[in-house]
Amino acid sequence: MEPFTTPRLLPWSSPEGKPCFLVPDSGGGYVSRLADDMEAVLLTMAAAVAEHARKVLDDPVSPYTEVRYAGVRLVECLTDVLRVAESRGMRLPVPDTEGTENADGPDGIRQAGDTCDGATGDWAPGERS
Predict the structure, then answer these.
(1) CA distance 94 to 28
(2) Dihedral-angle region of residue 107 (phi above 0 means left; psi in -120 to 50 means alpha; beta otherwise)
(3) How far apart are CA 14 and CA 22, in angstroms?
(4) Which band of pLDDT confidence, cut at 50, 70 and 90, is reported for residue 37?
(5) Which of 62, 72, 122, 126 has its CA 20 to 30 A from that of 94?
(6) Residue 12 CB partners (closer than 8 Å, separation 6+)
(7) pLDDT band for position 41 (50/70/90)?
């Protein structure tokens, strides 16, 4: 019996608007590669729309219809980018924190100024006021 694999949220929806998931195999099959390519396209499109919208919004005499169109496209792209981020976040490994000491502040929360040793991953408290 294979271990349980977390389903991957795909960057498209069903015809009814419901999220689509894939239980990937270890080799990264065709649908996984297609989803990776689609995510790359969505992120590239979002960057292009943001650049265009910035030009429209920087021009104080941009017609209302152009501003509205830029806003609609920005919302579409933001929705796509958030979906990609959610999908990628779901695939991140959960860190094993059991039995590790941490240098967090009160209530186990890291404070501003805390530093991380990139080689060991250990956190050290910064100067406290």
Answers:
(1) 20
(2) left
(3) 12
(4) very high
(5) 126
(6) 20, 38
(7) very high
- Residue 77's CB is within 10 A of a number of other CB atoms, namely 19
> Residue 125: pLDDT above 70?
no
Task: Give me 114's structure tokens.
Answer: 């805390």
**In a 3-state reduction of DSSP, which class is residue 122?**
coil
Q: HSE on the CB side for 125, CA within 13 Å?
A: 12
CB 70 within 8 A of CB 52: yes
Residue 116's beta-bridge partner residues? 123
Q: Quick one: the chain helix, strand, coil %, rounded to 5?
A: 45, 10, 45
Mutual orientation of helices 30-58 and 64-90 as an angle, nearest 10°?
150
